[in-house]
Write a structure and sequence with these properties.
Length: 59
């Protein structure tokens, strides 16, 4: 519990497999979805993470 949380980098780190935009499947309302590019969220807290999702399923 006495662990020190490291400081956040000033900018989101660039990684060769992470793009500048985020391909997103967006649910606008019941029965209405769209596919769009959205910006990569910025890390603002030492507890924030970026997750690189390879696959997902929709039921």
């Amino acid at each position: 519990m006495g662990e020190k949380v490291s400081q956040l980098p000033r900018e989101t780190p660039k990684h060769p497999t992470i793009r500048a935009s985020n391909s997103s499947f967006v649910l606008e309302k019941a029965g209405s979805v769209k596919y769009e590019d959205r910006p990569i969220p910025e890390l603002k807290s030492p507890y924030d993470v970026l997750v690189n999702v390879k696959f997902t399923g929709i039921c």
